[in-house]
Amino acid sequence: MAARRAGGRAVSAAGAGGAAGAGLEVRGVGKRFGSRRVLEQVSFGVGQGEVVALVGASGSGKSTLLSILTGALQPDVGEIRFDGSPVLPGRRPFAYMPQRDVLLPWRRIVDNAGIGLEVAGIPRGEARERVGRLLEPFGLAGTERMFPRQLSGGMRQRVSFLRAVVQERAMLLLDEPFGALDAITRDELQRWLLDIRRANGWTILLITHDIREAVRLADRVLVLPRTPGPLAGEVLVSREIPRLDGFLTDPRVPVLEERLHGLLVAASTRGGGGP
Ligand SMILES: Nc1ncnc2c1ncn2[C@@H]1O[C@H](COP(=O)(O)OP(=O)(O)OP(=O)(O)O)[C@@H](O)[C@H]1O
């Protein structure tokens, strides 16, 4: 089921802790490294078909949270559920796109994009076939036999994104996918992502430092506090706001950005926390 909507605003299962079939539910997650607390009582949900952005100051634990979702780290407390069931090791419903492209320089593009499939035990020939079908919609036609060094930064990010999408998992986790790109390429890729996602209805959790990017890409934006604690707030982004042409001049955009900025500042100056 897609996130329920009322009056153009997303009404997700997030605040309620989620319901069966609601997609991702993160419940009361806490994590510390030694004596340093990084996450505490973090709870939210991402409904199926929803795009949720998570923003937070540097060091607030965004990447740690994604690592918990991917299974690279275990939470000290809390639970991760998907579609009403606990997420089990080895059977994660997520495909992950890391912050920096981690393409292997010696592998051709087709084999870089298919690496997740190969790791999952799919023969290379079949992986190549599945990647091959997506090259054109990903703007990568003709690159399959090339090596990463022959592509621009924007194209390499598309290969990384393709590598996540081709695994056909229920949900995509994107960690600052456009953070390392120049402003023009970033704008191009945001437009492209909006476009291709509209056709596919992917469920996405996106991490970004960039408030404008969060408002542009997400149905809902969550704010992680700098000092460990529950989420500092969330902002719903109306579907009536145009995300492609007209986004930058829509008067509702700066209002949402201001609200998010306010939440981030409040979250950064709030007392408590610390080790
Ligand atoms: N493996 C680890 N061992 C010890 N401390 C860690 C480890 N991983 C992260 N930390 C610490 O946890 C805190 C949160 O790090 P994390 O990378 O999750 O934050 P972030 O919000 O993603 O930051 P940024 O936006 O700068 O990437 C930081 O203070 C970091 O130094």
Automatic annotation (TrEMBL):
CDD domains documented for this protein: ABC_NrtD_SsuB_transporters
Gene3D superfamilies: P-loop containing nucleotide triphosphate hydrolases
Keywords: ATP-binding, Nucleotide-binding, Transport
Signal sequence segment: none
PANTHER family: ABC TRANSPORTER ATP-BINDING PROTEIN, TAURINE IMPORT ATP-BINDING PROTEIN-RELATED
MF annotations from Gene Ontology: ATP binding; ATP hydrolysis activity
Record-given protein name: ABC transporter ATP-binding protein
Residue stretches making up the ABC transporter domain: 24-251
Source organism of the structure: Leucobacter triazinivorans
Coiled coil: none
Statement: the UniProt record of this protein carries the keyword Iron-sulfur: no
InterPro entries for this protein: AAA+_ATPase, ABC_transporter-like_ATP-bd, ABC_transporter-like_CS, ABC_transporter_ATP-bind, P-loop_NTPase
